[in-house]
Amino acid sequence: MAALIPFAAGSVAISLGAFYWFKKSKQHTYPFDIYTNKQSFVVDPSTGIRVSPPGVATDAYLDVNTVYDVFERGLKLAANLPCLGQRSTASEPYEWKTYEQVKKMIDTLSVKLVSLLETEVRMIGIQARNCLQWLLVELACVASGLTIVPFYETYGEQALRHILDETRIEVMFCESPKQAKHLLQMYPSKLRHIIVFKQGDELEPLINGDSPTVHLHSLQTLLSSEASSCMGTKVPSPDDVFMICYTSGSTGLPKGVLIKHKEFIHTMKAFCHRLEDPIFTKNPVHLSYLPLAHILEQHASLITLNHGGRIGFLTSDFSGLLGDLKDVQPIYFFAVPRVLSRIYSTVLQRLSSIPFGEKMLQYAVALKNKDQQQGYYDNSGFLDFIFFRKIRSATGGRIKAILSGGAPLPDDVLRFTRAAFGCPVVIAYGLTETDGCISLSYLGDGSTGHVGALLPGVMAKLVDVPALNLSVSVDGIGEIRVKGPNCSDGYFNDVLHTKELFDSEGWMCTGDLGTWTEAGALKIVGRCKLAFKLAQGEYVSPDKVEAVYQLSRLVNQAYVDGNSLYAFAIAIIVPNMNELRRYLSKCAEENGGGDESVSLLSDWETMSDDELCSSVPVREAVLRSLNHLGRVHDLKGFELAKSIYLTNSPFTTENELLTGSMKLCRFNLRRHFESVINELYDNPPIL
Q1: For residue 590, what are the domain limits?
Q2: Would you say residue 511 lies in a domain?
Q3: Which CATH number goes with the domain that contains 186?
Q4: CA 278, CA 211: separation in Å to the nearest integer?
Q5: Is it the case that residue 531 has pLDDT exceeding 80?
Q6: Signal sequence: where (predicted)?
Q7: In this predicted model, what pLDDT tens digit does every residue of 143-157 receive, in sequence order?
Q8: 297-350: pLDDT as tens digits
């Protein structure tokens, strides 16, 4: 037996060595890893103008100059392969149309669209959930040189009427007879045709209705009838307007951003250049679930078509996202922070009842992040099997890269997402006015706390913000201003706001506060217009505080506000009532859990949700929990709310407290909760 010990030890050593070699062989490098420690450099010391390496992108798509060319390129690559797919219910398999089949429908519809137009207005409106028909209409429009005007499905009546009046479009596509009926009731004088995606018994009476000026059609009828000729259609030029992309309206009425083909294509090519990896170029698969009215989803879908990939569409609503991910099995995942934060919060919630569950998760995340920073994306470890395997399986099991944009992504969520999916997670920053992207992190950059390097061709600088008492030379923080071929010319039919968008030297004013990291990456600090001043002179960026509060399991939604007459900020929270009751139960079991306010509350179990929300001890307990979380995430004392209001009524698009892109509509929130805010300030802070 003793003689076998050296042999056994040697076998173990050889096995460990083999395992190490095997793992080492899976090390992955990306083309721009060499730039992660020098992500931008100053080209003009007097103004601080920066660009990022490589400053100019090699053009791998010389034949692509318009969105029309994007589909044509995909057609050449994958004529008989799946292009667009959808299903009616989650129990059915996806049905796919090939590129050739989609091309035939595009050719028919593009001619029909031109024949419907009665004036010089060459704009087509689309309001529907993401579906095959949505993208088909878009491609038919670009094939005939028409401009699309996407509408968020969640736009309120005021925003919808504003856009219809401003654009004076004649032809409007919508999803259902119900939407068509709504448009008929409020249509402006110029609307002439409403085309409905879905067939149904409700549609026939509308088509045969008594509207003297508006004609209703089903999309199926248009596609099934013969196209007479191609007269009136024209292939777009790079200088033509591809889309008028209306903003979500978080600060007032939506503004229509003019996006030309050349601007969109430049940004798309820059995306493809920065994301230069077979993940994005070899048989890509994408699930389209973010609204196609949002510029980020436009890029995700058209990048897929550019490489001959296939796009599956969300079956019903967001609640079915996981089921669709599992069936479509996307290769990459374009996400907004609220989606990734929800996955993170769900995992934390399930681990909360397991002793040391959260500690073990943190250890597993840290371990995987460390390996990933060295280029190892191994998903076979024991801790990975325990914590992350089910997440990957539930989302299709094939995601090899994730892109997050549209809002700040908390560092904790970013680190967790990288570990859970075992793949690079890149961060995009931009505005609708910059075609969705100003900067994008490198695939191999595993650091956090920034939004990456500037896109090729983009220049950026920081300027002083006197209104916030910010000096770039002193504070290292300023408003981000940009120039580049991705920048829009301005807003449709809106000279005043277009003038405000640019400074006297032609730099686009983003309205965002930024700084540069030691490695030269761009970091977003807050919004100029959102930041409010407290009585003692400190400035608070509410979106930064809200992002931290949203990490709490107690919180469904958070809104932070302030007033320059007072020395503290306040928070209005929509709590997760189930989690709040669990928290109160836990505190009661632990004799208040160290929270005096909860220990004094003996009858919480008999209270209704509304009574809990109005209870001062409960409000104190929630605020203590949130501010503890804030300190863990390095919020300063003056940034933490000192008073709080809990409401059981969620912020929604229906009550116009959320925008069409699901952002807080701050103007409406402030007006809606005016009396609440005044009362919070009329009374002493509760903490």
Answers
A1: 532-682
A2: yes
A3: 3.40.50.980
A4: 53
A5: yes
A6: none
A7: 999 999 999 988 878
A8: 999 999 999 999 999 999 988 888 999 999 999 999 999 888 898 899 888 878
Quick one: 605 and 672 in the same domain?
yes
**Who contacts 625 (Cβ-Cβ below 8 Å, separation ≥6)?**
552, 554, 583
pLDDT (mean) for 460-472: 92
Distance CA 342, CA 361 (A): 16
Give 44-91 pLDDT, tens digit per residue.
999 999 999 876 566 778 899 999 999 999 999 999 999 999 999 999
- The overall average pLDDT reported for the chain is 88
The answer to whether residue 53 is domain-embedded is no
Residue 501, C-beta contacts closer than 8 angstroms, at least 6 positions apart: 433, 490, 491, 508, 509
Q: Are residues 510 and 371 in the same domain?
A: yes
Per-residue 3-state assignment (H helix, E strand, C coil) for 515-541: EECCCCCEEEEEECCCCEECCCCCEEC
CA angle 497, 500, 503 (to 5 degrees): 150
Whether 663 and 592 have beta carbons less than 8 Å apart is answered as no
Indicate if 413 and 523 belong to the same structural domain. Answer: yes
The amino acid that residue 353 corresponds to is S
* One domain, residues 504 and 543: no
Instruction: Report the amino acid identity of residue 82.
Output: P
The alpha carbons of the chain give a radius of gyration, in whole angstroms, of 27
Judge contact between 50 and 459, C-beta under 8 A. Answer: yes
Residues 541 and 633 in one domain: yes
Q: Are 550 and 572 in contact (CB under 8 A)?
A: no
Of 179, 204, 236, the residue that ends a domain is 236
Query: pTM for this structure?
Result: 0.85
Alpha carbon distance 12, 647 (integer Å): 60
Angle, CA of 644, 645 and 649, to the nearest 5°: 145
User: What's the mean pLDDT in 494-500?
Assistant: 95
Beta strands in 385-507 (DSSP E): 401-404, 425-429, 439-440, 453-454, 459-463, 478-483
Single residue among 202, 236, 270 that ends a domain in this structure: 236
| Of the candidates 267, 233, 167, the residue with the CA atom closest to the CA atom of residue 482 | 267
User: Does residue 560 sit in the same domain as residue 430?
Assistant: no
Q: How far is CA 573 from CA 650, 672, 673, in A?
A: 9, 14, 12
How many angstroms separate the CA atoms of 230 and 668, rounded?
Answer: 47
